[in-house]
Amino acid sequence: MRRFVTQLARFGLVGLVGLVIDVGVFNILRATVLEPSVIHEGPFIAKVISTTLAIAANYVGNRYWTFGATKRSTVVREGLEFVAVSVGGMLIALGCLWVSHYVLGFTSVLADNISSNVVGLALGTAFRFTFYRYWVFHPNRERPLRDVADEAPSTAELTDQSAPVAQPR
Predict the structure, then answer these.
(1) Model pTM?
(2) Position 154 in a domain
(3) How confident is the model at residue 142 (pLDDT cuts 50, 70, 90)?
(4) Is 158 within the bounds of a domain?
C-alpha cells in the first residue's frame, strides 16, 4: 500500500508539471496565434499542441521517477505504449473540449479551460494512471531494468545446496 501511495504522489507531482505546461501553452496559443476569431479550430489545435508537450515532459518524469523501479530495457516499446495511453488521455480532454465548445456553444476562455483542463484533465488523469500502472510500467512486464523487490533472493541463493533446507512434513 505504501508503494502505491508513493507512486500516486509522484504521479501527481509529475502531472502537476505537465499541467503547468499544458495549461500555460494552451492559453498562450489560444490568446495569440490560435485565437478563435483568427482560426475557428484554434482552441482544439492549441489543446493538441499543449498536451503533446506535456506528454513529453510527463514521460521523462514518470519513466525515471514515478515508475523508475519498473522501467524496462525496451525503451522504444515502453515509449510507444506510454504515448498510446497518453493519446487516449488527450482524446478524453479533447472530447470534453469539443462537446463544450462545438456542441454546447460555450466558447469563452473560461469554458474552454474548464472543459479541457478541469473535466477532461480529471477524467484523462484517472485513465492514464490506471494504464501506466497496470500496463506500461507494470512490474511483471518482461525484462525490467531493476526488480521492484530488490530484497528478493537471487537464483543462486535459492539453489545453494550448502544451506540447510527445511523439509515439509
Answers:
(1) 0.68
(2) no
(3) low
(4) no
For residue 35, CA distances in Å to 32, 51, 95 come to 5, 17, 19
pLDDT at 154: 47
Residue 144 lies in a domain: yes
Q: What is the DSSP letter of 72?
A: B
Helix axes 75-98, 120-131, angle to 10 degrees: 160
Question: Considering the domain boundaries, does residue 167 fall inside one?
Answer: no
Contact predicate 61/14, CB 8 Å: yes
- What cell numbers appear for 49 in the block? 499542441
Count up the domains in the chain and report the number: 1
Q: φ and ψ at 129, to 5 degrees?
A: -60, -45
pLDDT by residue (tens digit) across 77-100?
A: 888 998 999 999 989 999 999 999
| Structural domain of 99 | 2-149
Mean pLDDT along residues 111-130 = 91
What region, left, alpha or beta, does residue 61 occupy, with left being phi > 0 and alpha being psi -120 to 50 degrees?
alpha
